[in-house]
C-alpha cells in the first residue's frame, strides 16, 4: 500500500518510478476509464474488469445485484482496484533492456454500498465522467433499474494507494551497438461514431458524443 506517508518505502522495485503526490494518483485514475477490481472469495482469487469513475475522494463502481462476488465486496471484503495505461513501447538495443512506458495505480480498501438516495446521483456522475453530459440528454433512472444495480464507492484514503510511472527512453547500451533504439508512443483515440442499427437515418449526434470525438 502507499500514499503520501511512505509510498516509496512500499515500492521496492524501481522506487524511482513511485509517485507520492495525490494529484498524480488522480491524474492516472482520471485517464483510464477501466480497471480491475480484485478480492478473495471463499479462499479463491477473484478479479473482474470494471468501468469506474473518480468522484473526488472516492471511486464509483457499479454492477448487477445478482453478481455474487460483487456482493462479497459490498459486504465489506477487502478489495483492490488496479489501473494501468500503456504510453509507449521502449525499444532498446537488446531484448533484455526493452521495456514500456506506462502509468499505473493501485487503490486498496473496503467498498461502501450506496443507498437508494445516493445511487441515482452516483450513476449519473459515473456516466458523465465516461460520456460527459450524457445524463442530461436521456431519461432518468427508473426504479426497477436502480433496484437491479449495485452502486459502490471505494474511498481513496492516505496510505492505501500506490502510483508508478515510467516515462523515459531506453538506457544507453552497455556495449557498442548499431541497433536502432527509441520509443514508439501508444495512445487510444475515439473513432467516428457508428449509430446503432435501429437509429433513424439523419438523427443528429448528441453533444456528448460529438464532444468525445473532438477531445480524442
From TrEMBL:
SUPFAM superfamilies in UniProt: FMN-binding split barrel (SSF50475)
InterPro entries: Pyridox_Oxase-rel, Split_barrel_FMN-bd
Designated name of the protein: Nitroimidazol reductase NimA, pyridoxamine 5'-phosphate oxidase superfamily
Amino acid at each position: 500500500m502507499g500514499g503520501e506517508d511512505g509510498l516509496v518505502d512500499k515500492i521496492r522495485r524501481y522506487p524511482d518510478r513511485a509517485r507520492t503526490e495525490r494529484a498524480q494518483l488522480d491524474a492516472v485514475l482520471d485517464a483510464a476509464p477501466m480497471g480491475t477490481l480484485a478480492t478473495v472469495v471463499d479462499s479463491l482469487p477473484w478479479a473482474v474488469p470494471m468501468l469506474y469513475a473518480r468522484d473526488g475522494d472516492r471511486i464509483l463502481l457499479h454492477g448487477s445485484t445478482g453478481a455474487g462476488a460483487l456482493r462479497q465486496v459490498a459486504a465489506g471484503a477487502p478489495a483492490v482496484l488496479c489501473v494501468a495505461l500503456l504510453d509507449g513501447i521502449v525499444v532498446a538495443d537488446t531484448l533484455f533492456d526493452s521495456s514500456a512506458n506506462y502509468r499505473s495505480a493501485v487503490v486498496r480498501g473496503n467498498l461502501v454500498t450506496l443507498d437508494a438516495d445516493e445511487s441515482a446521483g452516483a450513476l449519473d456522475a459515473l456516466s458523465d465522467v465516461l460520456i460527459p453530459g450524457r445524463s442530461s440528454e436521456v431519461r432518468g433512472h427508473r426504479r426497477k433499474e436502480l433496484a437491479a444495480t449495485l452502486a459502490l464507492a471505494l474511498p481513496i484514503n492516505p496510505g492505501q494507494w500506490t502510483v508508478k510511472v515510467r516515462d523515459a527512453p531506453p538506457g544507453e547500451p552497455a556495449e557498442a551497438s548499431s541497433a536502432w533504439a527509441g520509443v514508439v508512443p501508444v495512445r487510444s483515440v475515439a473513432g467516428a461514431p457508428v449509430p446503432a442499427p435501429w437509429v433513424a437515418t439523419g438523427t443528429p449526434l448528441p453533444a456528448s458524443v460529438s464532444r468525445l470525438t473532438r477531445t480524442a
